[in-house]
Amino acid sequence: MAGRRFEVEVGPVAHGGHCVARVEDRVVFVRHALPGERVVLEITEGTEGDKFWRGDAVEVLAPSPDRVAAPCPYAGPGLCGGCDFQHVGVPAQRALKADVVREQLRRLARLDVTVEAVPGDQDGLRWRTRQRYVPLPDGGRGMRKHRSHDVIPVEECLLEAPGGPSYEVRGRSFEVADGGFWQVHPGAPEALVGAVLDALDPKPGESALDLYAGVGLFSRFLSEAVGPTGRVLAVEGDAAASALAERNCPGITAVPGDVGSVLAAGLPGAWGHADLVVLDPPRVGAKRAVVEQVVARGPRAVAYVACDPSALARDVAIFAEHGYRLASLRAFDLFPMTHHVECVAKFERS
After folding, report:
1. Rounded distance, CA 264 to CA 219, Å?
2. Helix, strand or coil for residue 191?
3. pLDDT of 28 above 90
4. Any bridge partners for residue 23, and if so which?
């Protein structure tokens, strides 16, 4: 089917940076389109036997009022696959992401969702403080096409920030290893720390678990909030990052190792209970084994930092099975021009 073209009316946005259309009663996930548009789509992946196809909108017959000219010359069908929404005005991008989050959670919670802008980008551009290019044989550089190893030459990516990352948050400096994880949007650390602290409202003397702790971004501020009579334990799978967390966060206890395995094996000291828990898992989410270990410790509040709304939705259901409801949700536009959205969810006992 690849290469065939069809005229279609575009349906709603879907998780993954595309919209839904139908051709011959078959779902097609269409990139470079907007809900309500009439477009000519070209099939890029799919055979007669597949349940769904993928395609690109290669001609726009009736554009949405939210459509704009892509600021990047490498954005569009058959070009760089790094961005999903260069053809969408920035406020409309955030509305689309909010629609995706609401759709993922609609069977689990009725929450109003607004995707919040975060200071540090320039109208959705110049926010990537770490950027990777593909080196080309002629000494140039390139970017990969969507779902492909093919590379197109580029002069620059407009998402690339003019400076590197700052490892200072709220007047506190953090040490990060070369190539170690740190949020790429310059406004992300401040936004996430604020959202987590607002959700947990830590009190002096409380105990807090920071799971998937990285170099201790949340541990540092939790430790300051619970004070000398409280305690913070950080668990991180990367041993180098765990060692840095202990250096970045005086007074905490850092345990290296897979979060699920560490929790299942038992934590040092009296950690059968924790008042507060921060979860900041990778894109696949925390999953059942970790969620069940968290709720077994009876926290009064859990702050869950999620970079994938579908994984979050799965874990919301697991928390609900164990008597923890989704009490609030904030969403942040930490990845403008792409479909990615970061959420901070608060769970508390029903």
Report:
1. 21
2. helix
3. yes
4. 26
For residue 110, is pLDDT > 90? no
Per annotation, catalytic residue among 19, 83, 157, 307: 307
**307 assigned to active site:** yes
pLDDT at 1: 79
Q: For residue 107, what pLDDT is reported?
A: 84
Q: Which of 146, 18, 17 is nearest to 8 (CA)?
A: 18
Sheet of 141-144, strand order = 134-135, 141-144, 151-154
Residue 212 annotated in ligand binding: yes
**Hey, which residues does 305 pair with through a beta bridge?**
344
- According to the model, what pLDDT value does residue 108 have? 85
For the chain, give every residue range classified as CATH 2.40.50.140: 5-84
Does residue 190 have a known ligand-binding role?
no
Tell me the pLDDT tens digit for each residue of 188-216. 999 999 999 999 999 999 999 999 999 99
Q: Specify the pLDDT at position 216.
A: 98
- Contact between 250 and 224 under an 8 Å Cβ cutoff? The reply is no
- Calpha distance 246→266 (Å, rounded): 20
The CATH superfamily assigned to 168-349 is Vaccinia Virus protein VP39 (3.40.50.150)
Instruction: Map tokens 């830590």 to a residue.
Output: 202
DSSP 13-71: EETTTEEEEEETTEEEEEES--TT-EEEEEEEE--TT-SEEEEEEEEEEE--TTB---S
Can you tell me the mean pLDDT for 155-178?
96
Is 59 known to sit in a ligand binding site? Answer: no
State yes or no: 236 annotated in a binding site: yes
* Averaged pLDDT, 156-161: 97
C-alpha span between 325 and 163 (Å, rounded): 41
Query: pLDDT value at position 270?
Result: 80
CB 8 within 8 A of CB 21: yes
Q: Mean pLDDT across the stretch 118-141?
A: 97
CATH number of 5-84: 2.40.50.140
